[in-house]
Design brief:
The chain is of the alpha+beta class and about 220 residues long. About 20% of the residues lie in helices and about 25% in strands. It has five helices and ten strands, in the order H-H-E-E-E-E-H-E-E-E-H-E-E-H-E. The longest helix has 11 residues. It is elongated, with a radius of gyration of 34 Å.
Length: about 220
């Protein structure tokens, strides 16, 4: 045992991984582990942690409020809402179409339009506020356009329109009409069950969706 203790001291040192005497059964396990050496794992470096960031491509749309900055030409800085016709009104150059473009695409176009006025060929387009329209019609109290700056469900849009006209509204057959490509797509929702708290997943609207609340079938 004295020779074994001396061997451990020679291999690991009195201040190595093993600093105390172990009984024979435990010693056998420790010697097996010694074959792979004494390993110590420190804290994981932040550089070892990989994160994946996905950059979402923003497409400008009606109702967005844009902050447009001209580094080196601060007199041209402006804040512009995108109107219903998709245009913004810029000083010196007039009307510019913004809807459907990305901020980077609009920046490039503005650099070309202002090429003779710019000290540095740089324009920065930022979305200060983003809102989008949906339309509610049929058996609601105040049909019309609803502007929202946050995700909104079909039921929430109906509530924004004053709520159902309960005397005539067919809450079981609410329709959402959505333009996808060249052809419109229709979704039918049973909001009566939702109103009764029974079941139903929230149906989130997309820009320019039309929510139609039909009338009940009435016998005369």
């Amino acid at each position: 045992m004295t020779k074994m203790k001396t061997f451990i001291t020679d291999v690991f040192g009195t201040k190595g991984c093993f600093v105390q005497w172990f009984t024979r059964p435990v010693l056998g396990l420790m010697l097996a582990a010694a074959a792979v050496g004494c390993q110590t794992q420190g804290p994981i470096s932040p550089l070892a942690k990989q994160t994946t960031s996905v950059t979402e491509v923003i497409t400008l749309r009606e109702g967005d409020v844009l902050k447009i900055s001209f580094p080196g030409s601060a007199n041209l800085n402006t804040s512009q809402p995108i109107r219903r016709d998709g245009m913004i009104s810029m000083p010196l150059v007039g009307e510019v179409k913004a809807v459907g473009k990305t901020p980077a695409e609009l920046e490039k176009e503005l650099i070309e339009l202002y090429s003779t006025q710019l000290v540095s060929k740089e324009v920065v387009v930022e979305v200060q506020n983003s809102s989008f329209p949906v339309y509610v019609t049929g058996s609601v109290l105040h049909p019309g356009r609803i502007m929202s700056d946050h995700p909104i469900t079909a039921l929430e849009a109906i509530m924004e329109a004053g709520g159902f006209d309960y005397a005539t509204a067919n809450m079981k057959g609410v329709e959402v009409i959505r333009q996808e490509g060249e052809h419109p797509k229709k979704f039918t929702l049973n909001l009566k069950l939702v109103m009764e708290g029974k079941r139903g997943e929230p149906f989130y609207l997309k820009p320019t969706d039309i929510v139609y609340v039909p009338e009940k079938f009435q016998w005369f």
